[in-house]
Amino acid sequence: MNAAAINVGLGTTMIEPGLTGGRLDGIGVYTNALLRHLPATGCTVTPWSWPRARGGAAGISVGQAFPYSFEAATLLDLVTPAAHRVHMPLDVFHVTDYRVVRMDCPVVASLHDALPIKHPEWCNPRLRGLKNQLQAKAARKADHVIALSHFAIPELVECFGVDERRVTVVPCGVDESWLTPPAPEATRATLAAHQLQPGYFLFVGTLQPRKNVERLLAAWLLLPAAVRAERALVIVGAPGSRSEALVASMQSARAAGENLVWLDRLTDQEQLRHLYAGAGVFVFPSLYEGYGIPVLEAFASNVPVVASNTTSLPEVAGDAALLVDPLSAGELAEAMRTLAQDSVARTRCIAAGRARAEQLTWQNTARLTANVYRAVLSQ
């Protein structure tokens, strides 16, 4: 089938401002990138979003609203014969957020990781068992699965029961615009607005136990007082499930006069670029990642990176970051100090990170994703 003929439906619930409050998590960034870049691959893309269980299409502005909520569709899926399928006037539908139902066109699902099933202790406990059961059932309804990393494949097979022969790895990326530094005056204005001096340690991500930010805070506090005074720890991310202890620790550190800045309401992508540009070291000590887009964003911003040596992060970072044991605050602190003060290590990591970011762009992700559609439709 010719690429130009592919009519693609894309699940966009995770980028609906009326449903998310304007904050994009990793799935939202991924979805938004596909929506913007798939048309350049010859696909005609129609966004579709699931409305709330109550309230109808209120809050839906990016995509067309499905006629009923995902909860209602899931219940219908459970109680109707397998032959029943939602009618979609499409060649293929791409699910980006695990919300899979049976459709009368092929369904491709991006399964970012198996975190809720593999590590339920890090997730919202409310109805977790039922959610995991339904999510696993839903995943098996996809005709083909996109994994973001090779690391993820064994876990998707184990936890979701997907057929490894129906899985294709398509890595995430960054927009090519990130490879061009923002205007220095714009960066200075953003830093001034947040009372920041350039050269700080930066973390970006939703505050959840798996992100390991409490250990990052402990590592930063191990650095000499002079280093902490010169280089703030800047944490960008909204509080997520089970983040109460971390928030309390950050508040205690700030009350003690520590040079800690928490930006919990930042949603502007240009300001985020400015914050990367002003950073001295990016630190990403996550315990579990299906991919780790912020690492690529730091690479593209010419910022040296300290990252965990676990899950998908070595695959994403290659040899461009200092990889450390995320359970060791001491090892984390030493890597932070090295990239803050060792010019040779900084130069090497910045150059290698830049090369890595140039390899992994959202344009490349979209092209490989369109190839998956073509392969599915040719079967």
Automatic annotation (TrEMBL):
<keyword id="KW-0808">Transferase</keyword>
<dbReference type="InterPro" id="IPR001296">
    <property type="entry name" value="Glyco_trans_1"/>
</dbReference>
<dbReference type="InterPro" id="IPR028098">
    <property type="entry name" value="Glyco_trans_4-like_N"/>
</dbReference>
<feature type="domain" description="Glycosyl transferase family 1">
    <location>
        <begin position="197"/>
        <end position="355"/>
    </location>
</feature>
<protein>
    <submittedName>
        <fullName>Alpha-1,3-rhamnosyl/mannosyltransferase</fullName>
        <ecNumber>2.4.1.-</ecNumber>
    </submittedName>
</protein>
<keyword id="KW-0328">Glycosyltransferase</keyword>
<feature type="domain" description="Glycosyltransferase subfamily 4-like N-terminal">
    <location>
        <begin position="25"/>
        <end position="177"/>
    </location>
</feature>
<dbReference type="Pfam" id="PF00534">
    <property type="entry name" value="Glycos_transf_1"/>
</dbReference>
<dbReference type="GO" id="GO:0016757">
    <property type="term" value="F:glycosyltransferase activity"/>
</dbReference>
<dbReference type="GO" id="GO:0009103">
    <property type="term" value="P:lipopolysaccharide biosynthetic process"/>
</dbReference>
<dbReference type="Pfam" id="PF13439">
    <property type="entry name" value="Glyco_transf_4"/>
</dbReference>
